[in-house]
Design a protein that fits this description.
Rossmann fold; alpha/beta; 8-stranded mixed β-sheet; about 10% strand; about 50% helix; about 350 residues
C-alpha cells in the first residue's frame, strides 16, 4: 500500500490525533450480511454527510416543525403558546431542561408579540446548539498507551458490533494497528461479524468459543495486542440489559482483568446508544456510567426515528462527550458530532 496525505474533514475529526500518522488506505469493509444492499447502493449517487444527516433526522425535524407551525401560525407569544410549545419539545424527547431553556429564551422580550414559526425554530436551533457544543468532542488516541484500550458497551441491538467495525476500519485507514477482542461470547453472529471486519481491514481478531468467559478472553486479547505491537485494542462486550445484575457484574469483571495489565485501562469506555429507544436511553446512560465508567457516547440509528432529540436531553443531563453519531450502516455513516449541524437540521434551518 502507498502512503497518502492525511484525510481531513468530519471523519478525521472523529478520531482526534495526538501525533502525526500517515494514512494507509484500507479497503472499505462490507460484512457479508449486507453485501447485496451495498452493491445496490453503490449504483446510486452517494450523499454527502450533511445530506445523510438531514435525511436521517427528517422524522425528528418534521415532528418539531409541524408542532411549532401548528402553534404559532397567526398567534402571539403568550403563556398558553409557551406551554403548548414546551409540550411539543418534550414529546420530541428534547427533555424538560432543554424545553425550559427554549421557552425562556423565547419569552425574553417577546411576550404578547407576534412571532413566526421560523423565528421559533431559529431560537430552538440556537438553544440546542448551546446545549450540545460542550459535549461535542473527538475520540483522541494520543499514543500514550500501547495498546490504547477502547471498551465498547451497550444493550443488545444498539449497534455495538457495527460501530466497532467502523472504528477499526477508520483506525486502519490512519495507519494504526488494531486488535479486536470479540467479547460478545453469547452471540456467534457477533463473533463472525467481527471476523469479517478483521479480514477486510487487516485488524487482528481474538475470539473464543460461544459461551467462553468474556473476562478471560479480554485478558488474552490484551496480552496478544501487547505482543503484536497493536496501537489500539477494541474490546466488544455482550449486549446486556442495564437492569440485569449478573450481567453488569460480569462487565465489571472485564474491566478488572484489563487493569491487571494496565491500571489505567480501559482508556476509553464507549456507550453505544440506539436513538430509537428514546427515553430509555437516559436510563442506560445512568446505569452504564455508574457500573462501567462510561467516558463517551456514540449514538446510532438516528435515521430510523422521530426521537433524535433524545441526544439533546442526554447532553443536558449528563454532559458526557458525544464522539460520533450514526445515520446508517455504511462506513461513512458514522461521523464526528457537529452540534451546529445537528441543531440546524432538527430545526429545519
Amino acid at each position: 500500500m502507498t502512503e497518502t496525505p492525511k484525510k481531513s474533514g468530519i471523519m478525521g475529526r472523529l478520531f482526534g490525533r495526538g501525533t502525526a500518522t500517515p494514512v494507509v488506505e484500507a479497503p472499505t469493509p462490507v460484512p457479508q450480511a449486507h453485501a447485496t444492499e451495498v452493491a445496490v447502493a453503490a449504483a446510486e449517487p452517494r450523499k454527502n454527510w450533511l445530506q445523510r444527516l438531514t435525511s436521517g433526522l427528517a422524522k425528528t425535524s418534521a415532528k418539531l416543525t409541524e408542532g411549532i407551525t401548528g402553534i404559532f401560525t397567526k398567534r402571539k407569544l403568550d403563556a398558553e403558546t409557551l406551554a403548548e410549545l414546551e409540550d411539543v419539545l418534550i414529546q420530541a424527547d428534547l427533555g424538560i431542561e432543554t424545553a425550559t431553556r427554549i421557552t425562556a429564551a423565547l419569552a425574553k422580550n417577546r411576550l404578547d408579540k407576534s412571532i413566526s414559526p421560523e423565528e421559533v425554530r431559529a431560537v430552538l436551533a440556537a438553544e440546542v446548539e448551546k446545549v450540545l457544543t460542550p459535549v461535542a468532542r473527538p475520540l483522541i488516541v494520543n499514543g500514550n498507551h500501547k495498546p490504547h484500550v477502547i471498551m465498547v458497551v451497550g444493550v443488545n441491538g444498539g449497534g455495538k458490533t457495527t460501530t466497532i467495525g467502523k472504528l477499526a476500519s477508520r483506525y486502519r485507514a490512519e495507519g494504526r494497528s488494531v486488535t479486536i477482542a470479540a467479547g460478545d461470547t453469547f452471540r456467534a453472529a457477533a463473533i463472525d461479524q467481527l471476523k469479517v471486519w478483521g479480514e477486510r481491514t487487516g485488524a487482528k481478531v481474538v475470539s473464543g468459543k460461544v459461551g467462553a468467559d468474556a473476562s478471560g478472553l479480554a485478558f488474552d486479547a490484551f496480552k496478544q495486542a501487547r505482543e503484536n505491537g497493536s496501537d489500539i485494542l477494541i474490546i466488544d462486550t455482550a449486549g446486556r440489559l442495564q437492569n440485569k445484575q449478573a450481567l453488569m457484574d460480569e462487565l465489571e469483571k472485564v474491566i478488572r482483568v484489563t487493569r491487571k495489565l494496565d491500571p489505567a485501562a480501559p482508556h476509553d469506555v464507549l456507550l453505544v446508544l440506539d436513538a430509537t429507544t428514546g427515553q430509555n436511553a437516559l436510563n442506560q446512560v445512568e446505569v452504564f456510567r455508574e457500573r462501567a465508567g462510561v467516558t463517551g457516547l456514540v449514538m446510532t440509528k438516528l435515521d430510523g426515528t422521530a426521537r433524535g432529540g433524545i441526544l439533546v436531553a442526554i447532553a443536558a443531563k449528563y454532559g458526557l462527550p458525544v464522539h460520533a453519531v450514526g445515520v446508517g450502516e455504511g462506513i461513512d455513516d458514522l461521523a464526528a458530532f457537529d452540534p451546529g449541524e445537528f441543531a440546524r437540521t432538527i430545526a429545519q434551518l
